[in-house]
Design goal:
- The protein has helices at residues 19-43, 54-63, 67-91, 97-137, 140-180, 187-210, 214-240; strands at 3-4, 248-249.
- The chain is mainly alpha-helical and 251 residues long.
- Strands 1-2 form a two-stranded antiparallel ribbon.
- The longest helix has 41 residues, at 97-137.
- It starts with a strand and ends with a strand.
Length: 251
């Protein structure tokens, strides 16, 4: 007697997926959300102030006792988030050529993002801290030169941050394209991913053209909200998926 592999009536494609894809999706969704939440939590401990008022903010940075720990935590959060994007590649529908290539290029962009973020944290978390410490402790005749050095490091940070945001935005957009080619990821998740990717591109443009401004801060908060929304939804989808029975009797 023939057997049917079709899902039961009322069961959506997201409800029944092969075990390997379900495992990959659960791993991806969990890493994405955990990395984003860790990054947001750690960032709350970052020394604040008007980031473009260099005299005031450099003095605050020099007084910070948690600088190195905060930047290590941010790097860990970003690395976990990007690992989630890599895992998402294996959960997507590789039977679609568009999804396959979008996912591959998205993974390449995610790798570039991690490399750029490592450089960013070396510049911000190490070089800038040493530069502002040297400026704060320098004798009066040397302060102008030390301040100029710290500003040069800051401008280098702008450049690396800008391109890191461009790479991350491109990675998220490409994964959104890949996810759009699957039947089991809800369309609102795809739309939120796309908006998140665009918000990172906006951050890259704003930082590259004017530094850390209020406009960039708004874009950062928007990206956080969008990321938590689509990642949480993806977690819910991933843990709802069931492995279908190997076969069910047909009629």
């Amino acid at each position: 007697m023939p057997y049917s592999t079709l899902p039961a009536a009322g069961v959506t494609p997201a409800d029944t997926e092969p075990l390997a894809r379900r495992t990959s999706l659960r791993l991806s969704a969990t890493l994405l959300l955990a990395g984003q939440l860790l990054y947001i939590a750690i960032t709350q401990f970052h020394t604040g102030g008007d980031a473009n008022d260099h005299h005031a903010v450099f003095a605050a940075y020099a007084d910070s006792g948690m600088w190195t720990l905060v930047h290590l935590g941010q790097f860990a959060g970003m690395a976990i988030l990007l690992a989630g994007l890599f895992a998402l590649l294996f959960a997507l529908d590789v039977r679609s050529r568009t999804a396959r290539w979008a996912g591959r290029f998205g993974a390449a962009s995610a790798a570039a993002t991690l490399a750029l973020y490592g450089v960013l944290q070396a510049v911000d978390g190490v070089a800038l801290k040493q530069a502002v410490n040297a400026w704060a402790s320098a004798p009066a005749p040397e302060k102008a030169a030390r301040f100029a050095s710290a500003e040069a490091v800051r401008w280098l940070e702008w450049g690396v941050r800008s391109y890191q945001n461009f790479a991350l935005g491109l990675a998220v957009l490409l994964f959104a394209v890949a996810a759009a080619r699957t039947a089991w990821i809800p369309r609102p998740v795809v739309h939120l991913m796309g908006l998140s990717g665009l918000s990172y591109l906006v951050q890259g443009w704003v930082v590259g053209s004017g530094g850390f401004s209020s406009t960039e801060s708004i874009a950062i908060v928007l990206a956080f909200v969008l990321d938590v929304a689509w990642m949480s939804w993806l977690v819910a989808v991933a843990w709802r998926i069931r492995v279908p029975a190997a076969a069910s009797p047909g009629r």
